Design the sequence.
């Protein structure tokens, strides 16, 4: 039976436990791959690989569907300089006419090792001072074989003096950290599935910090930055990140890794990044994102989100999102669990660990809830459809994005799981919560090494019913599959708060906007008033469908030249919205679309509007209970590590 089609049952966990890591030992010799990152500052990686082969036709393939990306982002278009040799002779190859990720060769008689050289053009997540190595950028391996059954031994060469952070095991099996080296660093044999899941962060200004050493197994944060001082994280940030490890330990009460490495790049040029793995995560932020509490606020949940994925997404994965190879399409229907529940848990953990305050948690929740409530596309498209269509919604153009909808399963999922959490609390008089569900759902099987256990919708419902019996099928279908013109605000309201609109941004929105990196080009948020998002340099990013600016026939992509006769600036537009309150004259814009200039009169008179959560006195404040730290309580069970370490 195809592995990923096997439906989950409780007994199956244990058979998986015993087969997972044993597979590699039954196989032939491992592929040997050396990634050479000496040219990383020039946006080039090189690879030399030796593959065990037998005479006859051979199909090699590169990954297409990258786990965690939820779409076919395999890097085949960046692979160049491919040369195959055997016994000193160059071997011809031909690309498959249908599957462009596949290379066909004929191995001559007597050849047992094929050498492959390739280069990869790497345009993101590298800078002159640091680089992420994602092995899928360089891997060629036999097609039509489950990737977990292909043994591979990796090595890496980094620029002289650059440090290395990774969850890969050094060949000696020795202690972390891996020493910085200009020479080759060898790692233990693993398999193609695990290697794809085990990136390396390397950089000139590299530091590794151990986190919460009282917790087993070990946790580290590995930091590389473009500027020397920034990788030396300030003590307050390190303490909060260590709290994150403690809070995750207290919440999930299990782990599914042998060691965990939070990899963090700080760079204004390498680009933002958040990609989960079983034993590590790639996190990329602006250079100064951890330099003080205000800069930290915008990305405060990033580490918590990606760390949570080790449990929710990597260990527990929707059956359609796990495939035995990287060639078969992933199916996103349950991404409102994989990503949506992670969005919920990441934000909670950020608050519980102090990366955000409870008040900041509420401010950020208000921002995402309001955005969903003012997404008119929900009038035609269900949340489930945004998940099913995930691979065509990522990186979409913002123009009319609110009518199209984007990857709303993240924030919709957050509201949905908040709804479920507060409902459980209400039904049990706050004796049980979604925390109890996590212990059942994410901790099934106890502590393990890296492992995937797939699940279905039915298992989700069974586990919710184990916490508290309820009609969870209807609860979930109503919120996920149906057309809901309004966002699910029930969790906020049951949590003791109300989403309202004020005439000033909430304190967190003000801080996030003021500390956004210049590349974010943050301008005016007039979404809840005239229905426009405008960048600092006057470009209209989106127009809210059926809002006041839409009725004035304004086009996304236009530039605002003037507001009420004054040259545009964010302040001038804000002042015009305030001044129009209670008056009858429209707000007059002069806008430029391509080579044409026109006048748009916006009939809007309700002033500026920004979302904030307001406490409803006299109701239980579950929202505050949800964001309180757990880790100060004594651990519910011993922390001893078991399973296939
Ligand atoms: Zn995620």
Sequence:
């Amino acid at each position: 039976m195809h592995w990923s089609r096997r439906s989950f049952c409780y007994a199956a966990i244990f058979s998986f436990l015993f087969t997972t890591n044993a597979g590699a030992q039954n196989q032939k010799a491992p592929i040997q791959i050396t990634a050479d990152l000496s040219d990383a500052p020039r946006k080039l990686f090189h690879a030399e690989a030796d593959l065990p082969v037998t005479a006859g036709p051979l199909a090699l393939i590169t990954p297409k569907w990258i786990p965690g990306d939820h779409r076919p982002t395999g890097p085949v278009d960046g692979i160049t300089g491919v040369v195959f040799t055997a016994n000193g002779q160059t071997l011809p190859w031909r690309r498959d006419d249908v599957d462009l990720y596949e290379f066909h060769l004929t191995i001559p008689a007597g050849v047992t090792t094929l050498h492959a050289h390739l280069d990869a053009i790497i345009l993101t997540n590298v800078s002159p001072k640091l680089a992420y190595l994602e092995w899928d950028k360089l891997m060629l391996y036999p097609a039509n074989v489950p990737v977990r059954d292909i043994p591979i031994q990796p090595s890496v060469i980094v620029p002289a003096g650059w440090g290395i952070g990774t969850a890969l095991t050094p060949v000696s099996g020795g202690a972390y950290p891996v020493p910085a080296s200009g020479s080759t660093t060898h790692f233990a044999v693993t398999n193609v599935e695990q290697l794809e899941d085990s990136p390396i962060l390397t950089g000139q200004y590299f530091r590794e910090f151990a986190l919460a050493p009282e917790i087993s197994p070990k946790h580290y944060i590995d930091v590389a930055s473009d500027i020397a001082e920034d990788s030396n994280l300030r003590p307050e940030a390190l303490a909060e990140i260590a709290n994150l490890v403690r809070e995750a330990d207290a919440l999930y009460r299990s782990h599914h890794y042998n060691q965990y490495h939070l990899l963090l790049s700080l760079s204004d040029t390498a680009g933002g990044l958040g990609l989960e793995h079983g034993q590590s995560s790639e996190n990329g932020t602006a250079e100064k994102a951890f330099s003080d509490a205000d800069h930290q606020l915008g990305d405060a949940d990033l580490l918590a989100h990606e760390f949570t994925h080790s449990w929710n997404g990597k260990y527990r994965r929707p059956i359609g999102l796990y495939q035995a190879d990287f060639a078969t399409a992933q199916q996103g229907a349950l991404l409102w669990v994989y990503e949506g529940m992670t969005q919920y848990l990441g934000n909670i953990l950020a608050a519980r660990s102090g990366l955000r305050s409870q008040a900041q948690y509420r401010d950020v929740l208000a921002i995402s809830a309001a955005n969903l409530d003012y997404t008119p596309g929900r009038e035609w498209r269900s949340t489930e459809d945004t998940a099913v269509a995930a691979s065509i919604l990522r990186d979409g153009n913002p123009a009319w994005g609110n009518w199209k909808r984007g990857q709303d399963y993240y924030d919709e999922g957050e509201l949905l799981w908040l709804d479920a959490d507060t409902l459980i609390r209400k039904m049990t008089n706050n004796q049980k919560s979604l925390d109890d569900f996590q212990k059942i759902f994410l901790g099934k099987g106890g502590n393990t090494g890296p492992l995937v256990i797939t699940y279905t919708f039915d298992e989700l419902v069974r586990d919710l019913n184990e916490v508290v019996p309820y009609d969870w099928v209807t609860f979930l279908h109503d919120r996920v599959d149906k057309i809901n013109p309004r966002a699910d605000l029930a969790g906020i309201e049951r949590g003791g708060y109300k989403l309202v609109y004020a005439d000033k941004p909430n304190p967190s929105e003000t801080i996030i906007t003021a500390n956004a990196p210049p590349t974010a080009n943050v301008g005016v948020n007039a979404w809840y008033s005239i229905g426009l998002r405008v960048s600092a340099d006057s470009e209209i990013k989106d127009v809210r469908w059926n809002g006041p600016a839409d009725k004035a026939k304004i086009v996304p992509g236009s530039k605002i030249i003037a507001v009420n006769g004054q040259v545009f600036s964010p302040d001038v537009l804000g002042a015009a919205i305030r001044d129009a309150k209670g008056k009858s004259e429209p707000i007059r814009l002069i806008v430029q679309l391509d080579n044409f200039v026109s006048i748009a009169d916006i009939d809007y008179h309700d002033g500026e509007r920004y979302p904030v959560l307001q406490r409803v006195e006299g109701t239980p404040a579950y929202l505050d209970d949800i964001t309180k730290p757990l880790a100060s309580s004594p651990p519910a069970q011993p922390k001893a590590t078991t399973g296939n370490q």
